[in-house]
């Protein structure tokens, strides 16, 4: 196991790299990307921002990390999300962009005085990946617990309450549980077998819970090696949490290097920034230690913000 300081900095940087690589191609059709695949940072395309600019995926990750540096406090967490939304905090240029509808509605509920744990959307349509994109800081936070790590009721409640600030539907809670458990298990044991075992461990937990049992079948394909090895034509790269996890794990299972996994992710098109971001973060753990492409790093905006946030976290008692 590599040091927490190394892996945390690597993971946050990976979130930003995958995000920034995919930002110009969000909502792009896959066929167009097959003809002109993405390999480098680009600017002023789908979003009119310079090359290397990250969006909500990285902003919410940094905001979450900064909040957890002070401890687990959902009011503080939502306050920071609100500051990002209204004032452009945790962005490279002081301007927020790329927010999902469910996350935006949750922040507005918080602004109106709703309890943070009740701000998330509960409808079936409120199952976008806006919570998935910010799970990594919580995973690292959970690893420092004096209780030791097991995916149990205590950990699941923390993950669910954190997720519920923006997404409260059981499907989103399961998706967050799967991703958080995979992150932690990869830190301890970086290989594909451990990754798949972590998915199964999560799903076995939810199968035993009445309130989640009916939703588990939607994620069962993640335990099927044949599903994860099929053609990309069968993979939907949408913002829907199930599609997002399908895409991420498909990219990881069909790659043997960090940069290959990330370029596979963004070239799926559609929600290229979030799928690229989550894939990049997991690939940085799965293939650790990684050497990020120098041209990606050179173009990446806001690198000092990442360094400051990670440094502050590592000086705290929670990372």
UniProtKB/TrEMBL annotation:
Keyword Signal applies: no
Pfam families reported in the protein's UniProt record: ADP_ribosyl_GH
Cofactors that this protein relies on: Mg(2+)
Keyword terms of this UniProt record: Hydrolase, Magnesium, Metal-binding
Superkingdom: Bacteria
InterPro entries attached to this UniProt entry: ADP-ribosylglycohydrolase, Ribosyl_crysJ1, Ribosyl_crysJ1_sf
Cofactor note: Binds 2 magnesium ions per subunit.
GO MF: hydrolase activity; metal ion binding
Binding positions (Mg(2+)): 55-57, 271, 273-274
Family to which this protein belongs: Belongs to the ADP-ribosylglycohydrolase family.
PANTHER family: ADP-RIBOSYLGLYCOHYDROLASE, ADP-RIBOSYLHYDROLASE ARH3
Name this protein carries in UniProt: ADP-ribosylglycohydrolase
Lineage: Bacteria, Bacillati, Bacillota, Bacilli, Lactobacillales
């Amino acid at each position: 196991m590599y040091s927490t300081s190394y892996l945390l900095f690597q993971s946050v940087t990976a979130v930003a790299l995958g995000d920034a690589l995919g930002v110009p191609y969000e909502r792009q059709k896959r066929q167009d990307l097959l003809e002109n695949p993405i390999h480098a940072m680009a600017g002023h395309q789908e979003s009119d921002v310079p090359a290397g600019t990250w969006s909500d995926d990285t902003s919410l990750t940094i905001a979450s990390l900064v909040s957890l540096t002070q401890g687990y406090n959902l009011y503080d967490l939502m306050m920071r999300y609100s500051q990002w939304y209204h004032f452009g905090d945790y962005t490279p240029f002081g301007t927020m962009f790329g927010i999902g509808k469910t996350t935006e509605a949750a922040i507005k509920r918080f602004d109106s005085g709703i309890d943070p744990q009740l701000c998330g959307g509960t409808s079936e349509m409120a199952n976008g990946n806006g919570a998935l994109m910010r799970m990594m800081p919580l995973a690292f936070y959970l690893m420092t617990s004096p209780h030791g790590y097991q995916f149990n009721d205590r950990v699941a409640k923390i993950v669910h309450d954190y997720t519920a600030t923006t997404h409260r539907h059981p499907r989103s809670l399961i998706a967050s549980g799967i991703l958080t458990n995979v992150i932690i298990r990869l830190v301890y044991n970086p290989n594909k077998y451990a990754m798949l075992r972590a998915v199964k461990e999560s799903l076995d937990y939810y199968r035993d819970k009445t309130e989640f049992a009916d939703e588990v079948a939607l994620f069962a394909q993640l335990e099927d090696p044949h599903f994860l090895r099929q053609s990309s034509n069968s993979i939907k790269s949408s913002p829907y949490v199930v599609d997002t996890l399908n895409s991420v794990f498909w990219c990881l299972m069909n790659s043997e290097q960090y940069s290959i996994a990330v370029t596979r992710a963004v070239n799926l098109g559609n929600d290229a920034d979030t799928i690229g971001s989550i894939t990049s973060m997991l690939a940085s753990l799965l293939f650790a230690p990684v050497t990020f492409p120098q041209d990606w790093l050179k173009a990446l905006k806001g690198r000092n913000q990442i360094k400051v946030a990670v440094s502050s976290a590592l000086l705290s008692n929670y990372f």
